[in-house]
Description:
The complex is a heterodimer. Chain A has helices at residues 16-41, 43-70, 109-114, 135-146, and strands spanning 9-11, 73-76, 80-85, 91-96, 102-107, 117-123, 126-133, 148-150, 156-158. By secondary structure, chain A is an alpha+beta fold. Chain A has a four-stranded antiparallel beta sheet. In chain A, strand 2 and strand 3 (80-85) form a beta hairpin. By secondary structure, chain B is an alpha+beta fold. Among the domains of chain B are: 1-93, no CATH class; 164-240; 342-395, no CATH class. In chain B, 47% of the residues lie in helices and 27% in strands. Chain B has 15 helices and 21 strands. In chain B, helix 2 runs antiparallel to helix 4, helix 7 (160-168) runs antiparallel to helix 9 (209-241) and helix 12 runs antiparallel to helix 13. The A-B interface holds A 101-109, 122-127, 142, 146, 148, 150, 154, 156, 158 and B 7, 72, 74-77, 79, 81, 83, 85-93, 96, 120-123, 125, 129, 451-454.
Amino acid sequence: MENNSPQIKEFVSSRGVLVTATDISLIFIAVMCIICVVSYFFPYTGITFGAVSLVLYFLSVFLFVPLYYSNLSYSADKNSINIKNGFFIHRYTRITLNDIQYCIISQGLIQKIFRCYSVYIMLTGSFTIISNISLDDANMITELASTEIIDGSGDINEEGH
Amino acid sequence: MRKDTKFKRTHPYTFVKHLKISVILIILSLLQQFIFRPQGIIEIISSLGFNAFYVFAILLYYTYSYGNYKYRLEKSGVHIKKGVFFNQSFILPYNRIQTVVFYRDAVSALFGAEKISVDTPAGSKKSYDISGYFTKKTALRIKKLYKKGKSIHRVYRSRVISIILMSAFWSNPLTGMIFIVPVIYNVSKITGTQFAQDIIKGFLNPEWSLIAKVISPASAALATLIIMCWLISALIYFLRYVRLRSSVLGEHIIISRGLISKCITCTRINSISSVSIEQSLLMRILRLRNCSISVIGSGKLKGDKGLIVSAENTEKVNTYMTKLTGIPHDEIRRINVAKKSIYSYVYYPMICIILLTAITVFLNMFLRVGESTMFLIAVIYFGLIWWLLFRIFSYRHSHLGINEKALVLCCFKGLTLKKHFIPFDMIRKTEISQMFTQEKKGKCHLKVTIYGEKRLTYKIKQLPLEETKELLSQVEAIRKQISQ
């Protein structure tokens, strides 16, 4: 990252598909375990729910999630952070840097495997989440908001030093 | 500002505090061992049951949570690292901090711990941005940072009698409870006598005489319980607010209060969203008022009302308010509620009174109404008339005003009349609404939303439309000047 102010950049959460697919898979496994228990007592009900869950799982992982992430993009410049997302309804969100109170960089257990991070942009009375982006992009957003960089080791380096 | 090099952990009391949630289950597991006295490892494990697993998981979680929560005081902010399943790292900039609360109760003081809560306008309206138990040394270090190069001006110091009065008449519902006691006493007395007479006259089965015997002692027990609750509540408020002191330290207001548990709140004067002078119905009789501030971070600690002046007369409250917040208490311009609008203020209680009268007449004409029922109806009438009188009082005193630094709204909420001083740069939104009945008469309702985490709005009814628009355009011009 340059010592000067951050460059305008567009970035996409490329690993977001994998992370979300893994989350859905884990939920699917848990649901299937419950359905197996139900099937022991109510076989036909269990088979029906199992089939429906299987169809929903494949549709989610191979259709909905890739489509959602294909519409998702972020960009940042000197004055604002812009988020474009939405499935049926496309949303464009613009957050001016002055409105940002501070940013939280977060990493869950699944995100650790895929080396992804989420950034919580804290605004007055609310917050916005940018999910499943790389550490460099998370640092860039934080730097834009506060002019400081957090590197991977957790040490703080002031800008220009 | 001295920069820390290493990350530090919070005080171990944080871990102890977390365990209070799980203490019952921990005790239950231990009790099972004493009661059943299992022999052998398998018996011990099976007797512990699920509780043991839960206790182990809880202990593991809180140990890991305490170990992962670290902080470091940087040049530009506080660097926090926390989280068990979701690791979080952030820097809270000093210039975003609006309120810092130092809280110490008797138990944490024994362990040498003090709770520090830091709040910014960001995120949740229910919890602080940073909250945890730190050592007394850290708390003292932060307090010294505040005091550095500045002198503290003590403006207000509460009297014990004013705190006692405030605790006793804190809220109308709470005080109303104490008035229920004579009602319960009288109703039970009348009902008991009525029952006994009905049994003698043969209207009721003699077996019901037991109920007649039980009514009075049951009512006495209920009345005693209500008085005990009121006394305990008043005592808790007294202990929370006794030794209330409000001071000015540079650009901060320092509010300290409490006897057994001490609480010190430091908040920026220029971040005050509004200052409110309030008066409940009973305080009106005693000619006393409270003054409180609404600011980011106030009201999150249990029992915290942002109080800066308690139970003083109008002149003193105005003087202290101006000295503490810098907002003048007078008004350059004032708009009263439009004439002949009293109906809008009193129609609720009037409808209730008319309805109650109709029910009373119906009951007397067609059903046999006992003395106890009539007594209850009389009490309800008393309450409704009290409400009606308050609404008339609110109508006479509600107004919109302006001074050099703030917009002034005097309006009622529930049974309390409040006068709000809102600094111009803290006004988020003003909304004028008009019903079709108001359009011809040139009246409107005004709603003002102020800056803060929660959507705090104040509403005045039945203002004259043109004058209100003129005053709001004046406010808008002043806000533009301030932003430039």
